[in-house]
Amino acid sequence: QKEVEQNSGPLSVPEGAIASLNCTYSDRGSQSFFWYRQYSGKSPELIMFIYSNGDKEDGRFTAQLNKASQYVSLLIRDSQPSDSATYLCAVNDRDNDMRFGAGTRLTVKP
Amino acid sequence: GAVVSQHPSRVICKSGTSVKIECRSLDFQATTMFWYRQFPKQSLMLMATSNEGSKATYEQGVEKDKFLINHASLTLSTLTVTSAHPEDSSFYICSARDPPGEGSPLHFGNGTRLTVT
User: Fold this and answer.
1) Chain B residue closest to A51 (CA)?
2) Burial per residue of B61-99, b for 16 or more beta-carbon CB atoms within 10 angstroms, e otherwise
């Protein structure tokens, strides 16, 4: 069974801090990795994707991928209350199926 | 960026009736679309994969005769919930890959919140 695991949280950080969200996956043949943000009552919104080992930065967001450890993370710098949402890790496995983690609920406190 | 439009955003229907949900890719073509369902505080669950010009592929446990999928064109897929029951009340979300092909990200529609009374 190919799985994507995330800590369900809630993860609470103060405004201005760095939020660190983690995800592990079981299919070593996975090639594409995505982070989605989902506000309560809304559909998921793509915020980052990463295909190669290392870091990828986009504004306040940094995605990190370590294929050897089967680990992908998302860092949010200077967290804002508007970042409070559920963050979904998604992995495109070797069969080109997109598999989602259960999501980590992040709360940024003013 | 890729835009997926879903309609209606909210629908309330009576038990036993049918509801049709439309999903359109506005600025790209999608030979494949994906239909998800999400219950409150739960994760996304893939229901079925919609294929343009051929039959949909349903996930295990999803009744194909209850959730009818039609992918009539490269930009339109519809999901019809037939003989709806209160337990079908959920958040239904469609998505498509852009650019098409392996490894591309999924882009989601805004979702349809279905309430069956």
Assistant:
1) B103
2) ebeeeebbbebeeebbbbbebeebeeebbbbbbbbbbbe
